Amino acid sequence: MNAVTMPRAESATDAPFFSVRDIHAYYGESYIVQGVSFDIAEGDIVALLGRNGAGKTSTLRTLARAQDPQLKSGEIWLGDLAVHTLKDYQASQSGIQFVQEDRRIIPGLTVEENLQLSQIAEPKGWPLEKIYEYFPRLAERRKQEGVTLSGGEQQMLAVARALARDIRLLLLDEPYEGLAPVIVREIEKIVAQIKELGITTIIVEQNAVAALELANRALILDMGQIVFDGTAKSVLESPELRNEYLAI
Ligand SMILES: Nc1ncnc2c1ncn2[C@@H]1O[C@H](COP(=O)(O)OP(=O)(O)O)[C@@H](O)[C@H]1O
Ligand SMILES: [Mg+2]
After folding, report:
1. Angle formed by the axes of helices 151-163 and 181-196, to 10°?
2. Which ligand is in closest contact with the Cα of 100?
3. Which protein residues have their CB within 5 A of the ion that is ligand 2?
4. Architecture of the domain whose range is 15-246
């Protein structure tokens, strides 16, 4: 077939991997996410940065279709899937996995039961054997109650639960939060492995340098709006951006 004469397909393959278009979201009357737009290519690691209270968590919650904040307008597309029309569980079934800051380990359940719970509904991701191969620490502690793990291990479990689901986009909210520096380095290794696996990721992190060193893209939020969209390297190299929005 002659490629030149082939009609250009108007198909999902033309759509960006993940596209956020002018989203506005509210907690009740509080207008927090104020017209955020960006596109992400498959395999991108995006550092979503900004001062405390800038709206990073709220943005991730909106993307994961959490009940709060409520999305009032705008669109979210995962390929040709209209994520803005979905509920949180449907977003998760579609491969948007959200690892929240507080990790949400279920009390009363062992490590293994926490993992099994995330595989109750289809579609499943990695089998438990593969997860245990990747996280030997979780394998050792599989019979231990999840909430009794150390902070670093709980973060591992939270990421492992996301991998136990079918995953197309990983949203990580402050994975290093509250962890000792030596543990942070362990979690950094895990995030670096996630990058090696080619899992498209948005990572929010107070430790902007750590996030930027891992990421290829950076978005900076301020007062619920994107004030920078570019390469991670350009943020690391910009004293102005670092000063103004990141305080680093
Ligand atoms: N549940 C909520 N109800 C009302 N306002 C909220 C709620 N959660 C966060 N906010 C407000 O939204 C703004 C952005 O918060 P957040 O998204 O948590 O910022 P970040 O994660 O960047 O620190 C802040 O002004 C915060 O007070
Ligand atoms: Mg936050």
Report:
1. 10
2. 2
3. 56-57
4. 3-Layer(aba) Sandwich (3.40)
Sign of CA dihedral 136, 162, 33, 237: positive
CA atoms of 217 and 195, how far apart (whole Å):
13
Residue 44 DSSP SS3: coil
Kindly report, residue by residue over 121-159, the tens digit of the pLDDT.
889 999 999 999 999 999 999 999 999 999 999 999 999
* 217-222 and 30-40 beta bridge pairing: unpaired
Return d(Cα 223, Cα 52) in angstroms, integer: 10
Residue type, 116: Q
Task: Name the pTM for this structure.
Answer: 0.92
Sequence spans of domains, the chain: 15-246
Ligand 1 binding pocket, CB closer than 6 Å: 27, 30, 32, 50, 52-58, 68
Reported as half-sphere exposure (CB side, CA atoms, 13 A), residue 104 has a value of: 15
* Helix, strand, coil percentages for the chain (3-state, nearest 5): 40, 25, 35
Cβ-contact 105, 146 below 8 angstroms: yes
- State the distance from the centre of ligand 2 to the C-alpha of 55, rounded, in angstroms: 7
Nearest protein Cα to ligand 1, atom 7 = 27
CB-count exposure of residue 85 (10 Å: 0-12, 13-18, 19+): exposed
Ligand number nearest to the C-alpha of 59: 1
What is the rounded average pLDDT for all residues in the chain?
92
